[in-house]
Amino acid sequence: MEELDIVIVGGGIAGLATSLALHRKGIKSTVLERSESVRSEGAAFGIQTNGWLALQQLGVADKLRLNSLPIHQIRDVMIEKGIKRRESVGPASHGEVRGVLRNDMVRALAHALPIGTLRLGSQIVSVKRDEATSFPILQLRNRQDIKAKVLIGCDGSNSIVSKFLELNPTKALGSRAVRGFTNYPNGHGFQQEFIRIKMDNVVSGRLPITHNLVFWFVVMLKCPQEEWKEMVKKCDIDSIYTSRLRYRSPWEVMSSKFRRGTVTVAGDSMHLMGPFIGQGCSAALEDGVVLARCLWSKLGQDGMNNVSSRKQIQEAIDEYVRERRGRLVGLSTQTYLTGRLIEASSPATKLLVIVLLMILFRDHIGHTRYDCGPL
């Protein structure tokens, strides 16, 4: 049986960010990714101010800025029964907003890791607790066993590690999303803004990545304008990503136990949320920074060599969970309510949700002010 210090399951944004944050603090980790290549689903992300602060700590922000335009504003358009009812323009964030290709972010994070950190084609099928040491043991599909002193699950909405923690399965939102990007060789000519159009139970959005590349999404599979239909027709077919939207409810984020022994989770495995306020990726980046900082604060520069007991690791994870829980409850609540507003058909339900949003989140972009702090 192979024995490792820190094992991260999942080579997506959360897993790579956590591993890189640990590396920046001088702590070694191993990332197990089931795919034979680094995952590229999702097309692109809108990264807001808080996400850029986390990327700055990880040391890859400047590299990612080279291939992403700054977004100056957000434009919301409301259409009812084919008639434009409302249009508003405002700041997209309290600070910096840019669209980033998922491939660009994954490559930037992965390339900054030491060689050998990322193990591709390593799919885990189960996690159990070692009776002698109480440390977790992972069984891989190839029947190899790995014992880890720390196990961090970043393996998405169907997380094996979440099941070990006995977290409830994520719930379906009842809608699907189609995402992709379209390349305009001669330039797209769109403003540097994020435009979001709501029409009945449909939301479509457009986010320029560069002067030639545009990221777009459609929720509920219906487009409101001919311009959008043309953009989708011209898109890169390989970039299209269809998914059933899922989430972990705010009350579960508030009450779930995110540690069992020396095992925890981060990213979607911990707080999967809809795309309605655009914080899923940035929250995962924050997770990585905070978790690395908490582990380093207990383990010191000697890393796992300085561990005298499981208690130190558990205290570090508990500190991480405490720090993240308050932030994540706010994000998941605002995302959940915004999603309910989009899906609501009853005027009474819409009014209730609007009132709750106004009471709880008077500054609707206040979530972008958050700073996860230094490593």
UniProtKB/TrEMBL annotation:
<protein>
    <submittedName>
        <fullName>Monooxygenase 1 isoform X2</fullName>
    </submittedName>
</protein>
<feature type="domain" description="FAD-binding">
    <location>
        <begin position="4"/>
        <end position="300"/>
    </location>
</feature>
<dbReference type="GO" id="GO:0071949">
    <property type="term" value="F:FAD binding"/>
</dbReference>
<dbReference type="GO" id="GO:0004497">
    <property type="term" value="F:monooxygenase activity"/>
</dbReference>
<dbReference type="Pfam" id="PF01494">
    <property type="entry name" value="FAD_binding_3"/>
</dbReference>
<keyword id="KW-0503">Monooxygenase</keyword>
<keyword id="KW-0560">Oxidoreductase</keyword>
<dbReference type="InterPro" id="IPR036188">
    <property type="entry name" value="FAD/NAD-bd_sf"/>
</dbReference>
<dbReference type="InterPro" id="IPR002938">
    <property type="entry name" value="FAD-bd"/>
</dbReference>
<dbReference type="InterPro" id="IPR044560">
    <property type="entry name" value="MOase"/>
</dbReference>
<comment type="similarity">
    <text>Belongs to the 3-hydroxybenzoate 6-hydroxylase family.</text>
</comment>
